[in-house]
Amino acid sequence: MLRSKFSWLSLLSVGLFGLTLLAPHSSTANLSPERTTLPLPPEPDSLSNAKKPADITRFSQEEWQEHTVKIPQNGSLGGALASVNIPASVTYQIGQLKNSDLLTNLRAGDTLTIWVDKHANLQKILYPKSKTLRYELQKQGDDYRIETIEEQVDTRLEVATGVITNSFYLDGQNAGLSAKTIMNLADIYAWDIDFIREFREGDTFKVIYEAKYLNNEYIGDGDIIAAQVTTYNRQETHNAFLLKDGDETIGYFNEEGKNLKKAFLRNPVDYVRITSKFKPMRFHPVLQKWRAHRGVDYAGPIGTPIHVTGNGKIVFRGWGNGYGNYIKVQHAGKYMTVYGHMSRFGKFKQGDHVRQGDVIGYIGKTGLATGPHLHYEFRINGVHQDPLKMAFPAAKPVDKKYQTAFKKQTTLMLSQLNRFSPELQMARFE
Length: 430
Prior knowledge:
By secondary structure, the chain is an alpha+beta fold. The protein contains nine helices and 25 strands.
């Protein structure tokens, strides 16, 4: 069929450019018409020797001057163009374009490549936003147009597995996981696994995740598709599977469709050690007497970010004699969390609503503290609870409309996870 198509195109070309004519005849009833083919007239010298439009464009671009401009602190597009003698009127003209913010929202350190013609008129701007995304401004007549150009990225599914011998972070790196994916994995399990306390030597992890490649060069990771983590000497297995609706991430769920996200984070800080647990009576190192310790102390470097463990409202932010700089957050009526000994507060003020994971302050040693740490309390109806032993309520399970597709995906991903041994470091789906 393809050959036939090209044959018809050939015939059409002959009809158009061979200029076949039918010669008139006095009697045409019984005679076949005579055909006379007239050749096309030769191309005039004035046209054959002239530059064709493509050549004109090429030669004109060869005369352009190229400038590379790095945006300084508090710099702007207008400043960048002014540095190559382009007037402010051109900056104003660009600013009137509907998508002008693609070029005007610049940050310190961004680099622009600017081309001007021999008359110092702006012809083109190239703004590489990332390895895969760039913005281009082109002159078209008396106007300009900004285009968004995205490079084609190859997404591959890869598997990394490992055994805990040191720490989750180091063992994750040794298994080939990027820092981003290690942190994402910790976030997925933040409601179920205490990465500080629950891992034992010999516990395992398996991760199926997206790896991004541009021209066969690795450029970073995408989503975690599925994961499996064992804790308490491999006695407990925790599975996680991604559910998406198009480009929208619904969440991570286990094989039963239960949401891994809970109402509260297990820990308010990342990768620090617990120095004091919830105890009815504890000898206070500053007061030198026995008293109840109604929270958990997390030791860490001064300045370590503190995350609010659930959605809520800051009902107090200020100074307390024992707590030092501290914050109280009210959650869903009966729940309250308290964060003490901060070196400084975050951007949120008293009365502000905060979302789970927001940074509300930083570890310090203000108040009655012998060293830098966070004192964290969890209260229900005003009664102190042990946050390490709380069974937090889960978020909504997989919606009914997704259950069939999710079950198929889960079965496939679980079989893939079971294929790989934790001692196998890395694999790639071909």
